[in-house]
């Protein structure tokens, strides 16, 4: 093993160095990276040089790659990136120009500023997300991450008991409707129907209990909608206290991996008149959370 793992905090976020992610990944390094993800949930690599093909190849070492949902919910626009396995997390249109303030894709993309967990709105949700920075302006913005394992540990025993067995309905339309800035067609909505996911699950890598919520979670099944939504709001507020949150400030060449099974994240504001090109690959979990250990 050649990599060096440097923790940012004792149990959350680490930097990994002494590796070129564009080169073939030795099995020992792959296993060491996975072990670091299981322990720290978010890992950061600096000064990488990846094209889309190499980013997908690297991600594929950690599981099957999920197709981006953007093309399912943005059917009436031309997309910049050809591969369905790369999510375009940029402020650029199909011709590489900065998006207009009222552009449909920009308005949809604003929901990334809400606390969320990638692809929890799919029956088999996202596992690992890998976001790579191609172009970052001088003030490149931040992404914040919340440690949902630590947040669960800090709940009272009464709260943990109340959460046992609860299931929430997740829908990408729930996160988008909170901003109320884009209208979606019935065809788009039908392509991504709501799905049930556990509110508390056991993270398979660390074997720790973790909250699984965020802005795609609409309501708690079997409870009045208003009561369930208040519960989810309270849990998000609890989980995003400063002691559970880390902010990553982007630099060109950064690749950040986070584990959607035990984190939430959100984009922070930046000068959207400046070109910014980030691209994400997400691996798929093994099954619905209902089919995994609670």
Topology:
Blueprint: E1 4-7, E2 14-17, H1 27-40, E3 42-45, H2 52-60, H3 70-73, E4 87-88, H4 104-109, E5 126-135, E6 142-147, H5 148-153, H6 157-163, E7 167-170, H7 172-177, H8 186-191, E8 195-198, E9 200-202, E10 209-211, E11 217-220, H9 225-239, E12 245-249, E13 255-259, E14 263-267, E15 277-284
Parallel strand pairs: 2-3
Antiparallel strand pairs: 1-2, 3-13, 4-15, 5-13, 5-15, 6-12, 6-14, 7-8, 7-11, 9-10
Q: Overview of this structure, please?
A:
- The structure is a single chain.
- This protein has helices spanning 27-40, 52-60, 70-73, 104-109, 148-153, 157-163, 172-177, 186-191, 225-239; strands at 4-7, 14-17, 42-45, 87-88, 126-135, 142-147, 167-170, 195-198, 200-202, 209-211, 217-220, 245-249, 255-259, 263-267, 277-284.
- The protein has one domain (4-286): Double-stranded beta-helix.
- Strand 1 (4-7) and strand 2 form a beta hairpin.
- The longest helix is centred in the last third of the chain and has 15 residues, at 225-239.
- By secondary structure, the protein is of the alpha+beta class.
- It is globular.
Keywords:
294 residues; alpha+beta; Double-stranded beta-helix; 3-stranded antiparallel sheet; 9 helices; globular
What's the CATH class label? Alpha Beta
Overall average pLDDT = 95
CATH topology: Double-stranded beta-helix
Beta content comes to 15-25%
The assigned CATH architecture is: 4-Layer Sandwich
How many discrete domains? 1
Outline:
Helix content is 25%, strand content 24%.
């Amino acid at each position: 093993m050649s990599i060096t793992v440097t923790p940012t905090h004792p149990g959350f976020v680490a930097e990994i160095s002494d590796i070129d992610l564009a080169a073939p990944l030795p099995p020992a390094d792959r296993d060491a990276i996975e072990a670091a993800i299981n322990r720290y949930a978010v890992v950061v690599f600096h000064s990488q040089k990846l094209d889309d093909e190499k980013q997908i190849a690297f991600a594929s070492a950690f599981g099957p790659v999920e197709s981006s949902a953007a093309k399912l919910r943005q059917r009436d626009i031309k997309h910049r990136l050809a591969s369905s396995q790369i999510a375009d997390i940029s402020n650029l249109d199909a011709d590489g120009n900065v998006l207009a303030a009222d552009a449909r894709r920009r308005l949809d993309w604003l929901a990334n500023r809400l606390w969320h967990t990638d692809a929890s709105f799919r029956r088999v949700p996202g596992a690992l997300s890998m976001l790579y920075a191609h172009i970052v302006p001088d003030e490149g913005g931040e992404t914040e991450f919340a440690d949902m394992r630590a947040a669960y540990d800090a709940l009272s025993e009464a709260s943990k008991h109340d959460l046992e067995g609860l299931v929430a309905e997740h829908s990408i339309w729930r996160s988008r409707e909170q901003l109320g800035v884009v209208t979606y067609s019935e065809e788009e909505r039908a392509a991504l129907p709501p799905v049930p996911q556990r509110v508390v699950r056991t993270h398979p890598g660390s074997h720790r209990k973790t909250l699984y919520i965020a802005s795609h979670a609409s309501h708690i099944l079997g409870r009045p909608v208003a009561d369930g939504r208040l519960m989810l709001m309270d849990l998000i507020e609890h989980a995003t206290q400063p002691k559970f949150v880390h902010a990553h400030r982007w630099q060109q060449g950064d690749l950040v991996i986070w584990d959607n099974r035990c984190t939430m994240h959100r984009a922070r504001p930046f000068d959207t008149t400046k070109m910014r090109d980030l691209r994400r690959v997400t691996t798929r979990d093994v099954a619905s959370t209902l089919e995994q250990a609670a």
